[in-house]
């Protein structure tokens, strides 16, 4: 019963945290669009760190867009810049809105994943991959694949042992569910 309660708490926390970030992205998209059209009374420069964290947590913090700046005397400078680093900036409006919109969509997806049983099954099956991804290790690497293989073998052996050890109790429990 404790495990079920803990799992429900994790589901609710995952949903709340991601839906909160979704609404934050929506708020800053709206504020930024208002700022582009007319000067709004809110100082968006103060919100730069919040916006950078939202976009970075979604995985879009390192995106680069091409940018050409006139240097004078017919000279142009070509750069690749991160639009969120210059938030708020009218010249980078498209890149900023693209990053914020992509982040908003990702947070909505993550919030809805909280209630998707297939997500949780996949999460348990590929738990080592999730852990290595959290640690920043490339998820297609050899170590990740070997860890998943060991996880699956361990899971198969433990499941077999548990089923053999508790066979009468499990069959009685299953029968009681369907009565």
Characterise this structure.
With 179 residues, the chain is mainly α. It has two domains: 2-113, no CATH class; 126-179, no CATH class. The chain contains seven helices and two strands. It has helices at residues 2-37, 48-58, 93-113, 117-125, 127-135, 142-165, 167-177, and strands at residues 65-72, 75-81. A hairpin with a 2-residue loop joins strand 1 and strand 2 (75-81). The protein is elongated. The protein starts with a helix and ends with a helix. The model has no long low-confidence stretch (mean pLDDT 87).
Describe the SSE topology.
Layout: H1 2-37, H2 48-58, E1 65-72, E2 75-81, H3 93-113, H4 117-125, H5 127-135, H6 142-165, H7 167-177
Number of domains: 2
Estimated share of beta-strand residues: 5-15%
State the shape.
Answer: elongated
H/I helix tally: 7
What Rg do the Cα atoms give? Answer: 24 Å
Q: Runs with pLDDT <50, length 5+?
A: none
Q: What is the terminal-to-terminal distance?
A: 20 Å
State the strand order across the main sheet.
1-2
- The level of helicity is 55-70%
Largest sheet: 2 strands, antiparallel
Q: Let me know the average pLDDT.
A: 87
Structural class per helix/strand content? mainly alpha
According to DSSP, the number of beta strands is 2
Helices and strands, in order, run as HHEEHHHHH
